[in-house]
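Worked example (supplementary).
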Amino acid sequence: MFIVLARVDSRTMAAKISDDGGALGIEYVSDLAEFVRKEEPQHPRWVWDDTSTWYPELLAAGIRIERCFDLRLCHAILRSSALTAESALATAPQGVWDAPASVVTPRPERGAALFDLDVDPGAVPVLADPLAEFTLQRAAVAGSAEPGRIGRLLAAESAGALIAAEMRFAGLPWRADAHDAILTSILGSRPLESARPQKLQEILEIVREKLESPDLNPDSPADLLRALGVAGLQVASTRSWELKQLKHPAIAPLLEYKKLARLLSANGWHWLDTWVVNGRFRPDYVPGGVVTGRWATSGGGALQLPKQVRGAVIADEGWKFVVADASQLEPRILAAMAGDRGMVEAGATGDLYAGIVASGAVETRDQAKIAMLGAMYGATTGESGRLMPRLSQAYPRAIAKVEEAARAGERGEVVTTQLGRSSPPGQRFEGWNEARSEADTSRARERSRAWGRFTRNFIVQGTAAEWALCWMASIRRRLGELDDRWLTDAPHLVFFLHDEVVVHTPAELTVPVSVLLADAAAEAGRLLFGELPVTFPLTIATVDNYGEAK
DNA sequence: TGGGCTTGCGCC
DNA sequence: AAAGGGCGCAAGCCCA
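After joint prediction of all chains, the assembly is encoded as:
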């Protein structure tokens, strides 16, 4: 059963729909939390416009749900998926469901056809009517050549939305005192106002002295470039890797200054005051926030937490973290997508890069890693570019897969992930004619190649994101089966980073949690690739603080 | 003073 | 050693 929820004139309506799409009844809901609590034991799939506007209030009321269907996220997938390109949904003009999250709030006019169950799937909803949209989406999936594939993606995406809300609700344990101690040991104690901390100030004085530039502000690239020039150091930019090439007594302290200044500005005391409240860091996760299907976050830079400060992520008394990351996820995804038996076998032992070396394709593990990264990102020069032909010879199917994706992008075509997320439409770059200059032509060619690098990476990054969603959905379900206590009283997910999860768990449950994480990884592999014998090994660590992992 | 752009760097 | 994919954020800088 589905229960479609909608807010109409500040009231909440619920429509029950059977699995075959038949209407079972409509009612007004006066107390949402009470209603959901009463219906949830029937295991309905809750259908709503936007999980982030419905679920937090339920969690605050102490209610979790098992399944949902997030119409806004699913609309975005169906709108551009090659698997549903012919659907009424995809061929309709842009509407409210294509707008950014904050705009998709159903405010139908009084007397509008909200909950009209005889919606014509070909009709375009003028208003954000969730029932009409749900009907359109069901029709799009049913009419797809591979309804199971796209259906799995929509389910995974929606499960991700629930997990994002739950992780924000639970928060990542964060000890302000430990964070302060880390900052103090690296930067010196917290300064008053906006002064530089002592150690940063000391290094700054050394840099100024060595560059004979007493007023230098290294935080200003222009100012720094000028000072370096005066000292006879010619560089095109002030990036660290470029400065590292230079031999000059000012360089070492300058690089040190940059490192400390970065820590201070990105994750210093100001960050701590802003983002850590009552011992928890609560970033705003944005499922589907990246075109490839990866999550984004807003606020606090949760996906960029530097290793330096992870020591402040400390489990509660009597609790532990189980940290799991999928080893070499993207190359394994590529091997599986391409059905490249050789590369799948190279990964069977647990270390894919070692397996590539063992096959004789390259000499060292480092080379294997660089070559694989180059294949997935589209490197053309350097060591990575030079290793490509050898990789291509050893693993023709895997490399052909990414090469085809790149060529398709260069031609302006759309590429699609394993479960059916498609890349944004490209342009045709070769539409130049002889009236255009040589420079224009070469610019067009470079843009075309750049788009090809994007589509090349899209299929791998996007399919890896699908794997991660399936993994997390399975983890969430298995955690619920392991322990039926309330979310934050039982083992629960507290962090996610593309190919890595952190579970906060009572110390006595670390073993079953570790087992479940590995089982979930295997299940994710089957969901994407069926019975293809591809393995997704995990590196699992049980720790008291996140800094100890890896 | 505030918005938008660029630069640089953290994560995968 | 620094090429190649995806992000978010802070600071400087420029301009209205």
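Two points are worth noting when inspecting this output. Residues 438-482 of chain A form the longest helix (45 residues). Residues 493 and 503 of chain A are 4 Å apart (CA to CA).
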